[in-house]
Amino acid sequence: MFTKQGPTLRELAVQALSSTQRGYDLLAPKFDHTPYRTPDRVLDSVTRALEPLGPFGTGLDVCCGTGAGAGVLRQVCRERVVGVDFSAGMLAEARAALPPGTGGPAVDWVRADALALPFAPSFDLALSIGAFGHFLPADRFGLFAEVYGSLRPGGRFVFPIGAPPAVGSRAYWSFLGFDAAMRVRNALWSPKFIMYYRTFRLSDVLDDLTGAGFSVRLMALTDLGERPDGSPRARLVVATRE
Fold first, then answer.
1. Where on the phi/psi map is residue 75: left (φ > 0), alpha (ψ -120 to 50), or beta?
2. What is the pLDDT of residue 40?
3. Which residues contact 176 (CB under 8 A, 6 or more apart)?
4. What 3 state SS string does 188-237 have?
5. For this UniProt entry, which segments traverse the membrane (predicted)?
6. Using CA atoms, how far apart are residues 107 and 70, in angstroms rounded to an integer?
7. Angle CA(101)–CA(105)–CA(111) in degrees, nearest 5?
8. What contacts 24+ positions apart, CB below 8 Å, involve 23-26?
9. What radius of gyration, in Å, describes the C-alpha atoms of the chain?
10. Angle subtended at Cα 46 by Cα 164 and Cα 239, rounded to the nearest 5 degrees
11. Residue 216 pairs with which residues in a beta bridge?
């Protein structure tokens, strides 16, 4: 599937019938050869948006996966970067992809649940990319509260968020169909695999961030293009622990 180096259809089926954690442990060695990895142009856009907000000392990549976000943090943080994920397989790939001495501060990799982060308020910047579909709406406030508790006063929690696809577009029906299939799968099969595309609405996200104590502003990621109505295709959410 996807590329010669990517997972086979059988491997994807096995992963989809596993728990979220086990599924990513299995997918990890081939994850970067799938469309699920955040594209480099998005990572580059986020990096450019963060540069004028710095400098930052310490950075935390929340749900780091194979380390794409940690790579961004190494470019904008001077002192220390930590990547945290609950998948041992993904962390192993991240360690191999970003070994010490490859530019920027070294990265410490921590295995932990993002809903129970094991950190004191010691980070200047927290980043998360491409992971929010793995959290149910009921868990989102708790996730934001955990990140808030890991930041120093004045620290920022940032993440890109794309505009919803136009109603009736191919992407709209694709996301709708995927989420419907996932709901059926989770109703009929255990353990559950949590991954949804349509549960991270901007208005709800802003409410939960504010409720967790953040002040929030949005930055247009203009280099990722505009929609037909002139609005940006993607924004960077910048939530600050005042």
1. alpha
2. 95
3. 198
4. HCCCCCCCCCCCCCHHHHHHHHHHCCEEEEEEECHHHCECCCCCECEEEE
5. none
6. 8
7. 100
8. 23/193, 24/65, 24/87, 24/89, 24/90, 25/87, 25/88, 25/89, 25/90, 26/89
9. 17
10. 75
11. 239
H helices present in 38-136, as ranges: 40-50, 68-76, 88-97
- Which position has the token pair 């998948």? 87
Q: Work out the pLDDT band at 1, boundaries 50, 70, 90.
A: low
Taking only the tens place, the pLDDT of each residue in 28-40 is 999 989 988 999 9
Both tokens of residue 64?
A: 């780091």
Looking up tokens 């993002």 gives 114
For 137, the token pair is 């709406």
pTM for the full predicted model: 0.94
